[in-house]
Amino acid sequence: MNTPTSPRIIVAIDGFSSSGKSTMARRLASAVGYRYIDSGAMYRAVTLYALEHDLCGPGGEGLDADGLAAALPGITIDFAPQPDGSQHTLLDGRDVESEIRLLRVSEAVSPVAALPAVRRRLTAMQQELGRGRGIVMDGRDIGTTVFPDAELKIYLDASAETRARRRFTELMAKGAGEVSYEEVLANVVHRDEIDRTRAESPLRRADDAIGLDNSSMTLEEQDRWLLERFDHTIQSLRR
Ligand code: DC
Known about the structure:
Layout: E1 10-15, H1 21-32, E2 35-38, H2 39-52, H3 65-71, E3 77-81, E4 87-91, E5 94-95, H4 103-113, H5 116-129, E6 135-139, H6 142-146, E7 152-157, H7 160-173, H8 181-197, E8 210-213, H9 219-238
Parallel strand pairs: 1-6, 1-7, 2-6, 7-8
Antiparallel strand pairs: 3-4, 4-5
The protein binds 2'-deoxycytidine-5'-monophosphate (DC).
Protein backbone atom coordinates (compact mmCIF):
# COMPACT_ATOMS: atom_id res chain seq x y z
CA MET A 1 0.00 0.00 0.00
CA ASN A 2 1.04 3.55 -0.77
CA THR A 3 0.56 5.68 2.36
CA PRO A 4 1.47 9.35 2.98
CA THR A 5 4.65 8.21 4.74
CA SER A 6 5.72 5.89 1.90
CA PRO A 7 9.00 6.72 0.20
CA ARG A 8 8.30 8.57 -3.05
CA ILE A 9 9.97 6.96 -6.01
CA ILE A 10 10.49 7.46 -9.73
CA VAL A 11 8.85 4.95 -12.04
CA ALA A 12 10.39 4.84 -15.53
CA ILE A 13 8.39 3.12 -18.28
CA ASP A 14 10.16 2.71 -21.62
CA GLY A 15 9.27 0.91 -24.81
CA PHE A 16 8.44 1.19 -28.50
CA SER A 17 5.80 3.60 -29.81
CA SER A 18 2.20 2.62 -29.02
CA SER A 19 3.24 -0.21 -26.71
CA GLY A 20 0.69 1.11 -24.21
CA LYS A 21 3.26 2.93 -22.06
CA SER A 22 1.21 6.07 -21.56
CA THR A 23 -1.97 4.23 -20.59
CA MET A 24 -0.03 2.08 -18.15
CA ALA A 25 1.88 5.05 -16.73
CA ARG A 26 -1.21 7.26 -16.41
CA ARG A 27 -3.21 4.58 -14.63
CA LEU A 28 -0.42 3.80 -12.17
CA ALA A 29 0.11 7.51 -11.43
CA SER A 30 -3.57 7.97 -10.73
CA ALA A 31 -3.75 4.83 -8.55
CA VAL A 32 -0.83 5.85 -6.33
CA GLY A 33 -1.28 9.66 -6.39
CA TYR A 34 1.86 10.41 -8.41
CA ARG A 35 2.33 12.88 -11.25
CA TYR A 36 2.38 11.42 -14.75
CA ILE A 37 4.75 12.86 -17.36
CA ASP A 38 4.50 11.89 -21.02
CA SER A 39 8.02 12.59 -22.30
CA GLY A 40 6.99 11.70 -25.88
CA ALA A 41 4.54 14.63 -25.78
CA MET A 42 7.51 16.93 -25.16
CA TYR A 43 9.32 15.64 -28.28
CA ARG A 44 6.07 15.98 -30.21
CA ALA A 45 5.62 19.58 -29.01
CA VAL A 46 9.12 20.54 -30.18
CA THR A 47 8.36 18.86 -33.52
CA LEU A 48 5.14 20.86 -33.88
CA TYR A 49 7.15 24.01 -33.16
CA ALA A 50 9.65 23.06 -35.90
CA LEU A 51 6.86 22.37 -38.41
CA GLU A 52 5.08 25.63 -37.61
CA HIS A 53 8.26 27.72 -37.85
CA ASP A 54 9.42 26.19 -41.15
CA LEU A 55 12.38 24.57 -39.42
CA CYS A 56 11.39 21.28 -41.00
CA GLY A 57 9.12 20.06 -43.78
CA PRO A 58 6.65 17.17 -43.92
CA GLY A 59 8.17 13.93 -42.68
CA GLY A 60 10.95 15.89 -40.98
CA GLU A 61 12.59 16.65 -44.33
CA GLY A 62 15.07 19.52 -44.51
CA LEU A 63 15.31 19.73 -40.72
CA ASP A 64 17.19 22.91 -39.75
CA ALA A 65 19.12 21.49 -36.78
CA ASP A 66 20.98 24.73 -36.03
CA GLY A 67 17.83 26.86 -36.30
CA LEU A 68 15.94 24.57 -33.95
CA ALA A 69 18.84 24.40 -31.48
CA ALA A 70 18.93 28.21 -31.41
CA ALA A 71 15.16 28.40 -30.77
CA LEU A 72 15.11 25.79 -27.98
CA PRO A 73 15.95 28.05 -25.00
CA GLY A 74 12.91 30.19 -25.85
CA ILE A 75 10.44 27.30 -26.09
CA THR A 76 8.34 26.43 -23.04
CA ILE A 77 6.52 23.15 -22.56
CA ASP A 78 4.07 22.63 -19.70
CA PHE A 79 1.33 20.23 -18.74
CA ALA A 80 -2.09 21.54 -17.73
CA PRO A 81 -4.23 19.28 -15.52
CA GLN A 82 -7.78 18.77 -16.84
CA PRO A 83 -10.99 18.33 -14.80
CA ASP A 84 -11.21 14.67 -15.93
CA GLY A 85 -7.78 13.94 -14.40
CA SER A 86 -5.91 13.90 -17.71
CA GLN A 87 -3.41 16.58 -18.68
CA HIS A 88 -2.87 18.58 -21.82
CA THR A 89 0.47 19.55 -23.31
CA LEU A 90 1.07 23.30 -23.63
CA LEU A 91 3.56 24.70 -26.14
CA ASP A 92 4.43 28.29 -25.25
CA GLY A 93 1.19 28.41 -23.27
CA ARG A 94 -1.01 27.07 -26.11
CA ASP A 95 -2.94 23.81 -25.71
CA VAL A 96 -1.52 21.55 -28.45
CA GLU A 97 -2.70 18.20 -27.05
CA SER A 98 -4.71 17.27 -30.16
CA GLU A 99 -2.29 18.63 -32.74
CA ILE A 100 0.75 16.78 -31.40
CA ARG A 101 -1.06 13.43 -31.87
CA LEU A 102 -1.70 13.99 -35.60
CA LEU A 103 0.10 11.83 -38.15
CA ARG A 104 1.95 14.86 -39.57
CA VAL A 105 3.70 15.24 -36.20
CA SER A 106 4.27 11.47 -35.80
CA GLU A 107 5.90 11.44 -39.24
CA ALA A 108 8.33 14.25 -38.42
CA VAL A 109 9.15 13.50 -34.77
CA SER A 110 11.87 10.85 -35.19
CA PRO A 111 14.51 13.07 -36.84
CA VAL A 112 13.72 15.87 -34.37
CA ALA A 113 14.07 13.49 -31.40
CA ALA A 114 17.40 12.28 -32.77
CA LEU A 115 18.98 15.76 -32.50
CA PRO A 116 21.46 15.94 -29.58
CA ALA A 117 20.50 19.55 -28.74
CA VAL A 118 16.81 18.61 -28.48
CA ARG A 119 17.58 15.56 -26.33
CA ARG A 120 19.82 17.56 -24.01
CA ARG A 121 17.22 20.27 -23.50
CA LEU A 122 14.28 17.90 -22.95
CA THR A 123 16.30 15.57 -20.71
CA ALA A 124 17.13 18.55 -18.48
CA MET A 125 13.45 19.60 -18.35
CA GLN A 126 12.42 16.02 -17.50
CA GLN A 127 15.00 15.73 -14.73
CA GLU A 128 13.70 19.00 -13.27
CA LEU A 129 10.12 17.65 -13.34
CA GLY A 130 11.30 14.58 -11.39
CA ARG A 131 13.30 16.46 -8.76
CA GLY A 132 10.80 15.83 -5.96
CA ARG A 133 10.32 12.22 -7.11
CA GLY A 134 6.75 10.83 -6.91
CA ILE A 135 6.42 10.66 -10.69
CA VAL A 136 5.72 8.12 -13.37
CA MET A 137 7.41 9.05 -16.67
CA ASP A 138 7.17 7.15 -19.93
CA GLY A 139 9.39 7.35 -23.00
CA ARG A 140 12.33 5.68 -24.69
CA ASP A 141 15.32 6.59 -22.53
CA ILE A 142 13.83 7.33 -19.12
CA GLY A 143 15.40 4.33 -17.36
CA THR A 144 18.70 4.59 -19.23
CA THR A 145 19.44 8.32 -19.57
CA VAL A 146 16.92 10.59 -17.85
CA PHE A 147 16.63 8.69 -14.54
CA PRO A 148 19.24 5.90 -14.45
CA ASP A 149 18.59 5.85 -10.67
CA ALA A 150 14.80 5.30 -10.97
CA GLU A 151 13.69 2.84 -8.30
CA LEU A 152 11.31 1.00 -10.65
CA LYS A 153 11.98 0.55 -14.37
CA ILE A 154 9.65 -1.19 -16.79
CA TYR A 155 10.45 -2.06 -20.40
CA LEU A 156 7.27 -2.64 -22.36
CA ASP A 157 6.95 -4.51 -25.62
CA ALA A 158 4.22 -5.70 -28.01
CA SER A 159 4.28 -6.73 -31.69
CA ALA A 160 4.33 -3.95 -34.34
CA GLU A 161 0.90 -5.13 -35.60
CA THR A 162 -0.68 -4.99 -32.13
CA ARG A 163 0.74 -1.53 -31.59
CA ALA A 164 -0.35 -0.24 -35.03
CA ARG A 165 -3.89 -1.55 -34.42
CA ARG A 166 -4.00 0.30 -31.08
CA ARG A 167 -2.82 3.58 -32.57
CA PHE A 168 -5.17 3.23 -35.56
CA THR A 169 -8.15 2.70 -33.22
CA GLU A 170 -7.03 5.70 -31.16
CA LEU A 171 -6.76 7.92 -34.26
CA MET A 172 -10.18 6.79 -35.52
CA ALA A 173 -11.75 7.51 -32.13
CA LYS A 174 -10.30 11.03 -32.29
CA GLY A 175 -11.63 11.49 -35.83
CA ALA A 176 -8.11 12.19 -37.06
CA GLY A 177 -9.20 12.00 -40.74
CA GLU A 178 -8.07 9.96 -43.69
CA VAL A 179 -5.52 7.44 -42.53
CA SER A 180 -5.29 3.72 -43.21
CA TYR A 181 -4.13 0.94 -40.90
CA GLU A 182 -1.30 0.22 -43.39
CA GLU A 183 -0.03 3.81 -43.12
CA VAL A 184 -0.07 3.64 -39.33
CA LEU A 185 1.77 0.29 -39.37
CA ALA A 186 4.40 1.68 -41.76
CA ASN A 187 4.90 4.67 -39.42
CA VAL A 188 5.25 2.39 -36.36
CA VAL A 189 7.82 0.14 -38.09
CA HIS A 190 9.75 3.15 -39.38
CA ARG A 191 9.84 4.82 -35.95
CA ASP A 192 10.91 1.56 -34.27
CA GLU A 193 13.89 1.45 -36.57
CA ILE A 194 14.90 5.07 -35.89
CA ASP A 195 14.29 4.78 -32.11
CA ARG A 196 16.46 1.66 -31.98
CA THR A 197 19.34 2.78 -34.18
CA ARG A 198 19.80 6.51 -33.46
CA ALA A 199 23.22 7.46 -32.06
CA GLU A 200 21.91 9.57 -29.17
CA SER A 201 19.98 7.70 -26.41
CA PRO A 202 18.63 4.84 -28.56
CA LEU A 203 15.74 2.80 -27.20
CA ARG A 204 17.36 0.11 -25.12
CA ARG A 205 16.24 -1.93 -22.17
CA ALA A 206 18.09 -0.82 -19.03
CA ASP A 207 19.94 -3.72 -17.40
CA ASP A 208 17.81 -3.38 -14.27
CA ALA A 209 14.45 -2.93 -16.07
CA ILE A 210 11.65 -5.48 -15.77
CA GLY A 211 10.44 -6.58 -19.21
CA LEU A 212 6.77 -7.04 -20.08
CA ASP A 213 5.11 -8.10 -23.34
CA ASN A 214 1.51 -6.94 -22.95
CA SER A 215 0.22 -8.09 -26.39
CA SER A 216 -2.33 -10.43 -24.85
CA MET A 217 -2.95 -8.76 -21.49
CA THR A 218 -6.10 -6.89 -20.49
CA LEU A 219 -5.76 -3.43 -18.98
CA GLU A 220 -6.81 -4.81 -15.59
CA GLU A 221 -4.19 -7.57 -15.72
CA GLN A 222 -1.58 -4.98 -16.65
CA ASP A 223 -2.63 -2.65 -13.83
CA ARG A 224 -2.45 -5.47 -11.29
CA TRP A 225 0.95 -6.59 -12.57
CA LEU A 226 2.39 -3.07 -12.30
CA LEU A 227 0.83 -2.26 -8.94
CA GLU A 228 2.36 -5.43 -7.49
CA ARG A 229 5.81 -4.36 -8.70
CA PHE A 230 5.26 -0.87 -7.36
CA ASP A 231 4.24 -2.17 -3.91
CA HIS A 232 7.16 -4.56 -3.92
CA THR A 233 9.59 -1.70 -4.66
CA ILE A 234 8.13 0.47 -1.89
CA GLN A 235 8.32 -2.46 0.58
CA SER A 236 11.94 -3.17 -0.28
CA LEU A 237 12.87 0.50 0.33
CA ARG A 238 11.25 0.38 3.77
CA ARG A 239 13.36 -2.56 4.86
O1 DC B 1 5.78 7.90 -27.22
P1 DC B 1 5.49 8.75 -28.45
O2 DC B 1 5.19 7.93 -29.68
O3 DC B 1 4.46 9.80 -28.22
O4 DC B 1 6.88 9.51 -28.74
C1 DC B 1 7.01 10.38 -29.82
C2 DC B 1 8.43 10.31 -30.37
O5 DC B 1 9.34 10.90 -29.45
C3 DC B 1 8.93 8.92 -30.68
O6 DC B 1 9.03 8.73 -32.07
C4 DC B 1 10.30 8.83 -30.06
C5 DC B 1 10.50 10.11 -29.34
N1 DC B 1 10.81 9.96 -27.92
C6 DC B 1 12.13 9.87 -27.56
O7 DC B 1 13.00 9.86 -28.42
N2 DC B 1 12.48 9.80 -26.24
C7 DC B 1 11.54 9.81 -25.29
N3 DC B 1 11.91 9.75 -24.01
C8 DC B 1 10.17 9.85 -25.64
C9 DC B 1 9.84 9.92 -26.98
